[in-house]
Protein: DeoR/GlpR transcriptional regulator
Amino acid sequence: MQLMNERRELILEELITVGTVYVSELARKYQVTYETIRKDLSDLEKKGYLVKCHGGATLKQGAIEHPFQIREKENGSLKKSIAQKALTLLPDNCSMIIGTGSTTLELAKLLMYRSGFKIFTDSLPVANTLISSENQVFLFGGELRNKSSSVYGGWALSMINEIQVDLCFLGTDGFSNLTGPSSPSSSDAYIDKAIIAHAEKKYILGDYTKFNRKSLYKICDWRDITALITNNLADQAQVAKLEVKTKVILC
Structure:
């Protein structure tokens, strides 16, 4: 039983990393029969992790929250262009909150070479990136959340409630239903709601693939957002639908 559970955990880890797995490859890798692998995939499908397809399986959308270290490597060039566009929106010496996420981290990397800003964040990678910059950097307190490398909880909320900033920049896991940006974590979504309430201008940073993804927890309505910054590769029909609800900045 232990070997079976370990194998299924390893299969799930591989699925999270690559998105699709194949029965033949898994059988060869773990030196078991095709039927054994099919049973493994059926078990993982029943638990809601994957969708079986011909010859293998794909990760079920929204079923797994990818660790930050994996998300950081996805669509790197797209995220960099979004961050560069976001940088142009910053007035000199303004205050801002940069939320957790791999795209917001790209903005933090650009701010390393700027100075004079007051930057608040719930993201450990963002704070670590900016620690040697010539900006004032404030890290909210709270309990650490491993999957998003961020802090959350009452302590973080109490600190957010004590400030009012000029802008905020938040990430999103997707918005395929177009009702609003979403997050795979209820705690992250709750923190983001508080951040939005304490910023004058609110920007969502999300590459064009987020139009086809969604997560469990809605962060806010689009009417609460100043603009979405995304890539010009986004489907124009989807962009047009979203522009009815909020401004869309393409880059």
